[in-house]
TrEMBL record:
InterPro entries: Cro/C1-type_HTH, Lambda_DNA-bd_dom_sf. The lineage of its organism: Bacteria, Pseudomonadati, Pseudomonadota, Betaproteobacteria, Burkholderiales. It comes from the Bacteria. SMART domains: HTH_XRE (SM00530). Pfam families: HTH_26. This is Helix-turn-helix domain-containing protein. Residues 11-64 form the HTH cro/C1-type domain. It comes from Massilia consociata.
């Protein structure tokens, strides 16, 4: 749910956009200008007063509430207990990954051998964990930001290393749009940090493309996974050949 402060911030911006001043609003709702300023300054407002203001100004109350919900702070990562709950149930982890990919319930049912009842229960559990906010008609919105990352060396990353990495690299990486590179280099600490920042930019670009392509129909999109690793490392067999 949105906080009262967020709702008032959205309402204030909507009033400003329509050219309605505190003085003008006060005249429309029959109170003093100082009372209006106090309503907004206290960062709280009764729902009946919010409905009244929206009615006399022609601002849609549902738009105010929706925009306030969209503006709420979003987490960049889950907590350790949240990730632990996901890996304890592979189907819950699957549903979480589908939600991060903005799949609809209908798409999940068409793709995987899951019943509608099971999917709804999984969505409810993800809502309880704080990954999504479940809405009417089994729709949802994410409670995490576009910069979302799994915890470094957290339960999900460890699960991926144990169960997913070998399967991922078993592919040939020769289809259109695929690539596999292993590029060794000797770098200074400053250069390594510079490249790490560029990797972050690449992740941001992937998020942007993913967000933009959500407007396309499902049959025009396919599932891609970017797996990037960058660290100071030498193959153990090569290290064994080093001179003492």
């Amino acid at each position: 749910m949105s906080s009262p402060e967020q709702v008032l911030d959205v309402l204030r911006a909507a009033l400003r956009a329509t050219g309605i001043t505190y003085k003008s609003l006060a005249e429309r709702i029959g109170v003093s200008e100082s009372s209006v300023k106090r309503m907004f300054g206290q960062k709280d407002m009764a729902l009946s007063r919010l409905a009244q203001i929206c009615q006399v100004t022609g601002i849609a109350m549902e738009d105010v509430l929706r925009r306030a919900a969209d503006a709420r702070p979003q987490a960049d990562a889950l907590t350790l207990p949240q990730e632990t709950s996901l890996v304890a149930n592979p189907r819950l982890l699957l549903m979480a990954i589908c939600c991060l990919g903005h799949w609809s319930l209908e798409q999940v049912l068409e793709t995987y051998r899951l019943t509608e009842t099971e999917c709804i229960k999984l969505l409810a559990e993800l809502d309880r964990l704080g990954l999504i906010e479940l809405k009417p008609l089994n729709r949802y919105s994410l409670r995490v930001s576009n910069a979302f990352r799994w915890l470094p060396d957290g339960p999900v990353q460890r699960f991926f290393r144990e169960h997913v990495v070998a399967d991922y690299f078993a592919g040939r990486f020769d289809r259109p749009g695929e690539a596999l590179m292993c590029l060794p280099a000797r770098l200074s600490s400053a250069s390594a940090q510079e490249l790490a920042q560029k990797i972050e930019q690449l992740a941001g670009e992937l998020a942007r493309l993913h967000r933009n392509d959500r407007r396309l129909p499902p049959h025009e999109r396919d599932g891609y996974t970017l797996l990037v690793g960058f660290r100071s490392w030498e193959f153990a067999a090569f290290t064994a050949l080093r001179r003492g």
